[in-house]
Write a structure and sequence with these properties.
Number of helices: 16
Strand content: 15-25%
Distance between the termini: 45 Å
Shape: extended
Largest sheet: 5 strands, mixed
Radius of gyration: 35 Å
Structural class: alpha+beta
């Protein structure tokens, strides 16, 4: 017998777990459960073995995240556990399906279940009835407790306390309430003021990067989405709304918080964002603009998908085959199309755009096309390439030396002011360092000039950067501009309903951008050149369309 599993007939295995980290920290649950178990073991003359799960598994109803319980369950199946104690039945599981599975395992292996209320031999009709009643009471009690916790939390939020999670950029949490973070708030005002002056979000992002302003997650570069999201955030106007997710009939509660942006600036930004949004919509005879119109096709009947904007339901793309049959008076059996489920417009637009952009980022063929367009296929000799490399190395070395000389000069000046050492000698050294700095500056200027002339002669361009910037610019451009670009690289997008939760979406490109690869003539000597192989014009994916955010199903 092991220490964990002594004599099963005289051992009471005590299983404890808590429902939150807070309970564990306060000791209001684990210690009490343990005391009850030890008291029960003593009263029944049994040896106690404690299995403490802690709070690590308290948010998981599956067994895989509950290592201690898995050990106990393994002991049950091996006949090493015959007596199991829990302070209440919710310690085993709050999930009905898991609870039934545990009950079956205990009954099947003739394990006695002990609680403060008594001992139960599962499999016996009377014990099963009592166990079921206790389970229902425990489930009701837990739901009631969670409801009180939810309402209490919502009440706290309505009083101005933070509802949890990281605060918005520009704020900190002090005594559970939002307070202005002085270091971050000045950059919030900077973003709003620049945007109100007409500066683009892209230029604002670049200025933040130059100033070294990091995002809340510590990233050096802000995404355009992060800047735009910040501009939409009402916290900076001094308020935000909290909605009780369990009761949609209750109006959202308006919570006041410290204002960061002046009201006049916030209104200017709101007006400019509204005007920018209107300008993005194509001014045409069409009542509504559909980003994927002309690209989306039914994979079953071949018809072009239509778009529909609805007031009470989500806007959607759909196959119009049923409408066509109704107009023509056709029967249901005629030309029956199986594409019965709709696609939400916003989610579908974003999915297709993101997938196409990522495919182009990964495509060597597309990069070569951009490279050719930028460079005009310049011919750069190996000697010129090597010379450019040497100049760049030399320039880096010269700048490092210049920095060292300036540091030395500061130290000499400090020693002169403080009277450390021979003043005459220090003055001579200072003059020598100053001359070295002047010489270094001249060498840097000459090297820079030589490098610029070389780049002009060879038309050297950082085409990779231009390639990336082009896609970034497109992602922040107007819907009509992005649609024109999409039409230039994508021939059609075929859609088929797989089941109630998924669609099969196939993107057909004009050029085999998808899955191509770069093959070097000699991997050990890449200067010998390369070729691009493989690639397909077809990208097929299964997409989960049952949730608010469409996601690809990994095979």
């Amino acid at each position: 017998m092991s220490d964990e599993f002594p004599n099963p007939l005289t051992t009471l295995h005590i299983y404890t777990r808590v429902s939150s980290d807070r309970q564990e920290e306060e000791g209001t649950s684990l210690e009490e459960q343990k005391k009850l178990g030890l008291r029960t073991a003593e009263s029944r003359s049994m040896k106690p073995v404690v299995w403490e799960e802690g709070s690590a598994s308290s948010h998981h109803e599956g067994f895989t995240k509950r290592p201690q319980f898995l050990k106990v369950l393994d002991g049950v199946r091996n006949g090493q556990v015959k007596h199991l104690f829990v302070a209440d039945l919710s310690r085993l599981s709050r999930n009905k399906q898991n609870s039934s599975l545990i009950e079956w395992e205990l009954a099947n292996h003739k394990v006695s279940l002990h609680t403060p209320a008594g001992r139960y031999e599962l499999g016996d009709p009377q014990s099963d009835f009592l166990f079921g009643m206790l389970n229902l009471v425990s489930s009701y009690d837990n739901r009631l407790r969670m409801e009180k916790f939810r309402l209490g939390r919502f009440n706290k939020v309505s009083q101005g306390y933070w509802h949890g999670g990281p605060p918005p950029f520009g704020y900190s949490i002090v005594e559970k309430k939002l307070v202005v973070n002085d270091d971050e708030s000045k950059w919030v005002r900077f973003i709003f003021e620049k945007y109100a002056e007409g500066v683009s979000t892209r230029d604002i992002r670049n200025e933040l990067a130059v100033a070294g302003v990091k995002t809340r997650r510590g990233n050096d570069i802000w995404s355009l989405g992060s800047v735009e999201s910040l501009l939409r955030n009402t916290h900076y106007d001094g308020w935000y709304e909290v909605r009780d997710s369990k009761d949609e009939d209750i109006e959202p509660y308006r919570v006041e918080c410290p204002r960061i942006v002046p009201e006049e600036t916030f209104v200017k930004v709101k007006v400019r964002r509204s005007q920018r949004s209107r300008n993005r919509v194509k001014n045409s005879n069409e009542k509504n603009f559909y980003f994927l119109k002309g690209l989306l096709k039914c994979g079953d009947c071949g018809r072009n998908f239509h778009g529909r904007v609805q007031k009470r339901q989500y806007d959607c793309y759909y196959c119009p085959s049923k409408e066509r049959r109704w107009v023509k008076g056709q029967t249901e059996d005629y030309d029956a199309c199986k594409n019965s489920r709709y696609l939400r417009i916003e989610e579908t637009d974003q999915l297709i755009w993101d997938t196409v952009v990522q495919t182009l980022r990964d495509s060597h063929i597309y990069k070569e096309r951009i490279k050719s367009a930028v460079l005009g296929q310049p011919k750069i000799t190996e000697e010129e390439t090597e010379k450019k490399r040497q100049l760049e190395v030399s320039l880096k070395y010269l700048r490092t030396q210049l920095s060292d000389f300036k540091t030395a000069l500061v130290k000499i000046d400090t020693d002169l002011v403080l009277g450390k050492g021979d003043a005459e000698h220090l003055q001579q050294v200072k003059e020598g360092v100053e001359n070295a700095i002047d010489s270094q500056i001249v060498q840097i200027e000459n090297t820079n000039f030589e490098l610029e002339e070389l780049e002009k002669g060879t038309r050297w361009v950082d085409w990779v950067k231009k390639f990336g910037n082009q896609l970034d610019d497109l992602s922040s451009s107007s819907p009509t501009h992005r649609k024109d670009f999409l039409m230039s690289v994508v021939r059609e997008v075929m859609v088929k309903t797989t089941d109630k939760q998924t669609h099969n979406i196939t993107i057909n490109f004009h050029v085999p951008y998808y899955g191509d690869r770069l093959v070097y003539e000699d991997p050990n000597d890449k200067s010998l050149g390369y070729s691009i192989e493989g690639g397909s014009t077809t990208l097929e994916m299964e997409v989960n369309t049952s949730k608010k955010t469409y996601t690809r199903v990994e095979n």
